Amino acid sequence: MTILVTGGAGFIGSNFVLDWLRQSDEPVVNLDALTYAGNVENLASLDGDARHIFVKGDICDRALIDSLLAQHQPRAIVHFAAESHVDRSISGPGAFMKTNVDGTFTLLEAARAYWGGLAGDAKAAFRFHHVSTDEVYGTLKPTDPPFTETNPYEPNSPYSASKAASDHLVRAWHHTYGLPVVTTNCSNNYGPYHFPEKLIPLMIVNALAGKPLPVYGDGQQIRDWLFVTDHCSGIRAVLAGGKLGETYNIGGWNEKANIDIVKTVCALLDELRPSADGPYARLITYVKDRPGHDRRYAIDARKIERELGWRPAETFETGIRKTVQWYLDHPEWVARVQSGAYRDWVATQYGG
Ligand code: NAD
Ligand code: DAU
């Protein structure tokens, strides 16, 4: 048996592939276009491992997907590939529509044709697992209960609107064509291989470089943080036991204000890599807010726990310590990621 993963060179996808092959010998075909966010170096430990078949290609390329499905006959598709950064979606939404909407549509159509040609046990076992986000539900007020799977969709950014569109396509392909799908909507991930355009890795690498730590607006926006390998175990649980056509929220019950996240990162760095110039919190700099910035996300993860017995293994305290330590232990990864396209983006976003 084999699974096809899309976007498996990105942050969560590469953690998923590594985690999958730590737990099982079932091969992974990894289709990734290697945009600025894709980094095959994340998968260097799999060099020469026959269980990992990497294919550089676009999920919008129907002929390529058809040929991969025909050649490898996967029992499941786990779909991570996306444009994922909200700020980039504000400055350039086109790529988000192309990959997140059109790419998911192309993948669904290819999956439908492939699944339609299967028979018996192979047809019954096939799954299309769509990896999505809590941002599709919009924003919460301070006293609102966390998002459940029945919350209405109210996406507010081009990114979340494109992900919401892809969720709707997946739902419709199940409802109309019977395609065996499951969808997971997860909260903010953090951990190793996180691209340093996102809050936590950006704060770590900027602090170590003595650069400002840009906090948007008043820094009181709330996100619900989950260590990335807990997201991977949640996906495995839903892929194995999730009900067809259902969605499952995945989250770590870790609501934190952005400014508190930044201060926690600073305190850990003060402990693990003290700076001769004084505490890292001196670098905190409040900057202009993100347009349309969602104030609060929070996930109610009781359904996946009740139905599938999933719970996160890491607390925020253990996960964030592991994360900071990983960045301290991998300066060469950071240095290579910071060359090229990433530097251009930082200049555009933060004025150099
Ligand atoms: P990422 O930006 O780190 O990685 C995305 C990967 O997709 C990259 O390897 C990129 O090269 C690849 N890709 C982009 N366009 C492609 C295309 N057209 N064809 C093939 N590959 C393409 O993203 P991530 O943070 O790892 O997120 C992965 C998935 O999880 C996304 O669908 C995202 O919406 C979802 N998600 C992310 C988070 C989070 O906190 N990061 C939380 C919930 C859900
Ligand atoms: O909620 C899940 C989502 O989490 C995923 O679907 C997205 O793919 C992922 O990128 C993430 O989106 P966010 O916008 O929440 O993540 P980001 O790391 O960009 O920002 C986290 C919070 O920190 C957000 O409130 C904006 C703020 N922020 C971010 C950056 C990059 C800052 O204050 N300063 C910054 O420099």
UniProtKB/TrEMBL annotation:
Residues 4-323 form the NAD(P)-binding domain. It comes from the Bacteria. Transmembrane segments: none annotated. It holds the Pfam family GDP_Man_Dehyd. Its cofactor is NAD(+). Signal peptide: none annotated. It catalyses: dTDP-alpha-D-glucose = dTDP-4-dehydro-6-deoxy-alpha-D-glucose + H2O. This is dTDP-glucose 4,6-dehydratase. It comes from Pelomonas nitida.
